[in-house]
Amino acid sequence: MIVVTTNDLPGYRVVKHFGVVRGITVRSRSVIGNIGGAIQSVFGGKLSVYTNLAETARQEAYELLVRHAEEMGANAIIAMRYDANEIMDGITEVLAYGTAVAVEPV
Questions:
Q1: What is the pLDDT of residue 52?
Q2: What are the two backbone dihedrals, phi and then psi, of residue 102, each rounded to the nearest 5 degrees?
Q3: Would you say 4 and 77 are in contact if contact means Cβ atoms under 8 Å apart?
Q4: CA neighbours within 13 Å on the CB side: how many for 79?
Q5: Helices (DSSP H) in 44-84: which residue ranges?
Q6: 0.70 cut: is pTM over it?
Q7: Which 3 state secondary structure label does DSSP give 45?
Q8: Which of 32, 80, 78 lies closest to 53, judged by CA?
């Protein structure tokens, strides 16, 4: 699966549009993760507990996005983006979305 953030794909031409595809996950911070994050924040610098949580959530949303596009018969996703919203304190939604297309080399 080719995934790009641009609206076109140099070297390829879009032969079919399947529409919007998405991958969504909702994650919460654990009590232990919050304690670890609080301890790290006392010392400053990178908060690896939260960085790992964010990376895991984005990776899961990305994988779901690709799976959704594959199920539609696409071989590429253009205009891919991430979005994140806090649903409630400590619970975050991460969304990966884009346009599923079929492409072929020019």
A1: 81
A2: -105, 130
A3: yes
A4: 12
A5: 48-72
A6: yes
A7: coil
A8: 32
The first and second tokens of residue 23, run together, are 């991958």
Residue in the structure block whose two tokens are 């529409």? 19
Examine the pLDDT at 105 and tell me if it is beyond 90: yes
Contact between 2 and 9 (Cβ < 8 Å) = yes
89, β-bridge pairs: none
57: which strand partners? Answer: none
Tokens of 80: 């891919």
89, 95, 70, 71: which is closest to 3 by C-alpha? 70
Instruction: Quick: pLDDT tens for 56-89.
Output: 999 999 999 999 999 999 999 999 999 999 888 8
C-alpha to C-alpha distance for 106 and 96, rounded to whole angstroms: 28
Write the CA distances from 36 to 33, 45, 53, 56, 59, integer angstroms. Answer: 5, 13, 12, 17, 22
User: Distance from first CA to last CA of the chain, Å, rounded?
Assistant: 17
31 confidence band (pLDDT: 50, 70, 90): low
